[in-house]
Design brief:
2 domains, 181 residues, four-stranded antiparallel beta sheet, 25% strand, Alpha-Beta Plaits, alpha+beta
Length: 181
């Protein structure tokens, strides 16, 4: 069985799109996922799955819509894909705190990204790197103050979901510890 990471966008934010993680674990198990574990309330899950996972994002979104009345964006990556994104972060050595690093996972290559606008929004020592699988942002003044972070998805032109570096590291640890029978 293959290890996977599911990243859900826009759940449990500001009291909207409520999805308890226990319910998410049960939902994933119902869809045939094994060894399901979640991290914090923002929709991060790791699991193993034996079938073709290409349809899994749609299955998860449809099941959530059926059970909870909203349809989140769902991104599913293999453990190797997730690990490759994490290992490619060019700003790890520069950040004194993990909270200054963020990763936007993208569903498709960012060929339409408006990098000119991204550079215009960059400020206060911020740095970003755009790849086909992710955007890495070092925001030393905090992501909450970053105009680039606020405008990132619009600049990218493709569906994306962001995670701070602490969350990326924790998900990586969880994937490494998954029991594969």
């Amino acid at each position: 069985m293959t290890k996977f990471v599911a990243l859900l966008r826009g759940i449990n934010v500001g009291g909207k799109n409520s999805l308890p993680m226990e319910d998410l674990r049960e939902l994933l198990a119902k869809l045939g996922c094994g060894d399901v574990a979640t991290y914090i309330q923002s929709g991060n899950a790791v699991f193993r799955y034996k079938d073709d996972a290409a349809k899994l994002p749609e299955l998860i979104a449809t099941e959530i819509d059926s059970c909870f009345g909203f349809r989140p964006s769902v991104m599913v990556l293999t453990a190797d894909e997730f690990d490759a994104v994490a290992k490619a972060n060019p700003f790890i050595a520069e950040a004194s705190e993990p909270k200054f690093l963020h990763v936007w996972f993208v569903r498709e290559p960012t060929t339409r990204a408006n990098t000119t606008r991204m550079s215009e929004l960059e400020s206060g020592g911020e740095k970003f790197l755009l790849t086909d699988t992710a955007v890495y942002l070092y925001a030393p003044d905090g992501v909450g103050r970053s105009k680039l972070a606020a405008g990132m998805e619009k600049c990218l032109g493709v569906p994306a979901t962001a995670r701070n570096w602490r969350t990326v590291c924790k998900i990586g640890e969880m994937v490494s510890g998954l029991n594969l029978l």
